[in-house]
Design a protein that fits this description.
The protein is mainly alpha-helical. Helix content is about 70%, strand content about 0%. The chain has helices at about 10-30, 40-55, 65-75, 80-95, 100-120, 130-150, 150-155, 165-170, 185-210, 215-235, 250-265. Helix 9 runs antiparallel to helix 10 (about 215-235). The protein starts with 7 loop residues before the first helix and ends with a helix.
């Protein structure tokens, strides 16, 4: 929904980037548009990496890879960001789990912060503007932290856990069953740390958003409000946050987009 607020050229470029990201995610996990349980495998990731790097070199590989090649001809996205994003899938294939907050943030950078940086370049940010790219990374990290807070149950079903091990030990969350009803209060406290961290990264992203063109500011402010709304709703629901998947209703999204427009048109 937020992407529709871009000008047409930026919107279509964003779709090309997202199509590649979505395909890589699905292919690695054996899913379709994020649905159906699957597991990342080294063979799938190696195949994705090979086809992606070939597309980055200008080779025709078919489907979303040709779209990526087209995008890279038009936008100077640094190759290191593409590789950084692919490395996030490798972490999942290795069955990696974060030992601490630094590990959690490392994962969030690879799977979402790097995408935020690529999106910033798509929106016209100079790839040498490290400060703005850092802020774009912060926003991607904030989005992923909200996802992790919301998806504790879904991740557990898939045999994954992105909750830092030292936090679980400190608060008494069982790594084998983080949703244990007897310890739900501990999970609530841990996830509150994650949503608080997401809010801090949202705030850190603000200067970068101010540097974007107006239409891009509107879109990114809208996306920030929607994703931030997920994290805030998870925090407010407490122990009931995982009884059903938390979403932001369409009516609320429209309200966020309207408020974001008012903010986007104000200088600074």
């Amino acid at each position: 929904m937020a992407s529709r607020l871009f000008d047409r050229r930026t919107r279509e470029r964003a779709w090309l980037l997202y199509a590649w990201c979505r395909h890589c995610d699905d292919e690695c996990d054996g899913q379709t548009l994020g649905f159906a349980t699957g597991f990342a495998t080294r063979a799938r990731i190696d195949r994705i990496r090979k086809r992606t790097l070939a597309a980055a070199a200008g080779e025709i590989r078919g489907g979303v890879f040709d779209g990526l090649a087209c995008l890279l001809r038009e936008c100077p996205i640094p190759r290191r960001l593409i590789v950084d994003h692919l490395d996030g899938f490798s972490l999942d294939a290795e069955g990696w789990r974060p030992a601490d907050q630094a590990g959690l943030l490392r994962y969030c950078y690879h799977v979402a912060g790097a995408v935020g940086c690529m999106m910033a370049v798509v929106m016209g940010v100079d790839p040498e503007d490290c400060e703005t790219l850092h802020r774009a990374s912060d926003l991607g990290i904030a989005f992923q932290l909200s996802n992790i807070a919301r998806d504790v149950r879904d991740d557990h079903v898939m045999g994954r856990c992105y909750l830092p091990r030292d936090w679980m030990e400190e608060l008494g969350v069982d790594p084998a069953d983080p949703l244990d009803p007897e310890r739900r209060h501990a999970l609530v406290a841990l996830v509150r740390r994650i949503t608080d961290l997401a809010a801090a990264y949202e705030r850190s992203a603000a200067p970068g958003i101010a540097a974007l063109p107006m239409r891009a500011r509107w879109a990114v402010l809208s996306a920030r409000g929607i994703y931030g709304g997920i994290g805030r709703k998870v925090a407010s629901l407490g122990g009931a946050a995982w009884d059903r998947r938390v979403i932001v209703p369409r009516s609320r999204k429209l309200a966020i987009m309207t408020a974001s427009l008012a903010r986007a048109v104000r200088p600074g």
